[in-house]
Specification:
Glucose Permease (Domain IIA); Immunoglobulin-like; disordered N terminus; 7-stranded antiparallel β-sheet; 309 residues; alpha+beta; binds zinc ion; 5-stranded mixed β-sheet; 3 domains
């Protein structure tokens, strides 16, 4: 008992008991630090200022290595993926062109390697975007379709629905998306409110490029062709699924040069531009879509994205 005399507690403890108390304190402290690290992932997004119609890349960094990371964003399920390190997870998403500006929550849920669930939440401000209104003149059949055409439009709807429902659990894109045309200028057309022949009002959910008939149209990133055929409004249309419900659409083509099911590489030729379907003249209409949300293709080309191995 000769070295347990300094205070009342020590008086009743032998050296082994001292060691046990120290081990308990150290153990509890390191557990608390580990739990704290796991509980507070760092969440960031690009662009820093998200607007209506913006694509966005979420990045989540963990101290630990989760086995799964998912989130709710804009009422949709977003599944994250990692590239080289299990500590850093990404999710490519967006805000629909017709969404309301305001505060939206990103609700994150991760499952850590030990099965523990980690939840985090961020309130993100979605800023408004200003878009103009234009009046367009197209052949009357596109504004007031007859019964036979209406039947065709219904068939098209089903075809598109099937293509949009395509599921690829992992990203097939890798690195930044590229414009589908080389040496062609885009018009300021995304998000424009349009009237056709003064009657029909729609929001233009894609980006139009000035392109002479027959200009090669290239895949914006790698993916799988989920639709490649003629539709009434779109004309010759190609849809590429880049994985996790992120798709690009190429519309009004004069010629399609890929088939449904084809795997395409970034920059691979999909077809030639044209003026098929509801078009006022030769041009390429390209759209980018995440789970039914249409985002600005020009902003997508400008968004730096990681390489996916
Ligand atoms: Zn267009």
């Amino acid at each position: 008992m000769f070295f347990c005399q300094r205070n009342r507690l020590s008086r009743f403890m032998c050296p082994i008991q001292h060691l046990l108390v120290i081990l308990l304190i150290v153990g509890a402290t390191s557990f608390a630090i580990a739990a704290d690290k796991g509980a507070a992932p760092s969440i960031s997004w690009n662009p820093r200022q998200i607007k209506v119609g913006s694509p966005c890349l979420f990045k989540v960094e963990f101290a630990g290595a989760p086995s799964r990371v998912a989130a709710k964003w804009q009422g949709r399920d977003l599944v994250f993926f990692f590239t080289t390190s299990r500590h850093v997870w990404y999710g490519l998403a967006g805000v629909d062109i017709e969404a309301k500006p305001g505060n939206y929550k990103l609700e994150l849920e991760a499952t850590m390697a030990d099965g523990r669930a980690v939840n985090a939440e961020r309130k993100i401000r979605v800023l408004p975007s200003a878009y103009k209104t234009v009046r367009l003149k197209v052949p009357d059949q596109f504004v007031e379709p007859d019964a036979e055409t209406l039947k065709r439009i219904e068939v098209d709807k089903e075809l598109k629905k099937k293509a949009f429902a395509h599921q690829i659990p992992e990203p097939q894109w890798s690195g930044t998306f590229r414009p589908p045309l080389t040496n062609a200028s885009a018009t300021e057309s995304f998000g424009v409110r349009r009237t056709f022949n003064g009657k029909l009002a729609t929001v233009h959910r894609g980006l139009d490029y000035h392109a002479k008939e027959g200009t090669p149209v290239l895949a914006a990133n790698s993916g799988t062709v989920v639709l490649a055929q003629a539709l009434f409004y779109e004309g010759n249309c190609v849809i590429v699924d880049h994985g996790q419900q992120f798709m690009t659409l190429y519309i009004h083509l004069s010629q399609i040069q890929v088939a449904e099911g084809d795997k395409v590489a970034e920059g691979q030729q999909l077809g030639l531009s044209g003026a098929t379907g509801r078009a006022t003249g030769p041009h390429l209409h390209v759209a980018a879509r995440w789970q039914g949300a249409y985002v600005d293709p020009a902003q997508l080309w400008a968004l730096p994205l990681p390489r996916v191995p």
